[in-house]
Amino acid sequence: MTQTVPASTAPARAPRQPARIHRAWFVAAVAFVTIIGAAGFASLPGLLIEPLHAEFDWSRGTIGLAVSVNLALYGLTAPFAAALMDRFGIRRVVAVALLVIACGALATVWMTAPWQLVLCWGVLVGLGSGSMALAFAATVTNRWFTARRGLVTGVLTAAGASGQLVFLPLLAWLVDHHGWRPATVTVSLAALAVAPFAWLLMRDHPADVGLAPYGGTYEPKPAPTPGATRRALKVLLDAARTGPFWLLAGTFAICGASTNGLVRTHFVPAAHDHGMPVTAAAGLLAVVGVFDVIGTVASGWFTDRFDSRRLLAVYYALRGISLLFLPILLAPSVRPPLVFFIVFYGLDWVATVPPTIALCREHYGDDGAIVFGWVLASHQLGAAAVAFLGGLARDLTGSYDGVWYASGALCAIAALLAMTIHRRRH
């Protein structure tokens, strides 16, 4: 007589042969769409500076402070989010983060004082977006892929740029024709729309569906790791004793300063200072998003094949050179040299991410995603500093030129730092 094994003692789900298209690619696709849907909030700060200044008479430094709080919390939340994903699962963390983003963005519609902008856009959206940071892409890649990690990292990183491409022209049109409030509501609704999509279709681990990671061997799903905060801090303390961590953090801080803090936040108002319409300037940033996708995916492909340190050095050097030319390229109309800058800068925008994640993985193994979360924190702290200082410099000097030159010099320093990272011997 056949005995029935009680459910409580039934064996774990056995691995099965993957379908022709591995489930990991569907999970990556869901993550891609989720990041796109959440990317609207990243497109908006640069469009809000002039309307908020005009309506409330707030200085650009004050508005930049709210953006800097957002960027700083985005970075500081990322390593804890990676640990929380280990503890509670990717789906739960991402769904809650999207809801927080939606609530924070929607609440700004009723604000009347600068502290409310800092609270809603800075704190709430910053915390939510930090949980949807690049550590999310790193976690998905590390769990679901053994082969093609560089390529997948590039694709998921490019999702943020794709979101910028989708939302920025629409948001610029809304701000220009209907004011900033409808644009903010659009961002909130986009985050709300994506939340159930991520909850229903995302899976936390290949073992949940009885599969091995793409290109790897089957392993049972590890038990949830308690003490997410303690683990994140322990990983930081361990990594902080090593030289590569500080070199990666320093280079990535300059990366954030020269992209999210400077160009994403201040390019539109800087171009407007030269007489360019807001919609035209926003359209140029959308073009950055187009070529960012190409550049980041290509960078992921390069990362699978070339030395990540040399890739970083080349990326930062080229970025610095391009920034030195920007002040003489801005004009009332869009001219070919400025278009060339936009294409060039777009290719380089977050091309630094795949080699940086690869170096974190190379030096820190299974803790690589959390270490990258801390490195990303430095990225956002650099972005936060320049988001505030750029607005302050504009208030004090009436021009952004000095900020462009200083950022170009910082990129040259980042290129030198990247080449000093040693290779780990296996």
UniProtKB/TrEMBL annotation:
Transmembrane parts of this sequence: 24-49, 61-81, 93-113, 119-139, 151-174, 180-201, 245-263, 283-302, 314-332, 338-359, 371-390, 402-421
Domain of life: Bacteria
PROSITE patterns reported for this sequence: MFS
Pfam families: MFS_1
Keyword Transmembrane: yes
Keyword Transmembrane appears in the UniProt entry: yes
Membrane topology qualifier: Multi-pass membrane protein
Location of the Major facilitator superfamily (MFS) profile domain: 26-426
Gene3D superfamilies listed in its UniProt record: MFS general substrate transporter like domains (1.20.1250.20)
Main location: membrane
Keywords associated with the record: Membrane, Transmembrane, Transmembrane helix
Cellular location(s): Cell membrane
Name recorded for this polypeptide: MFS family arabinose efflux permease
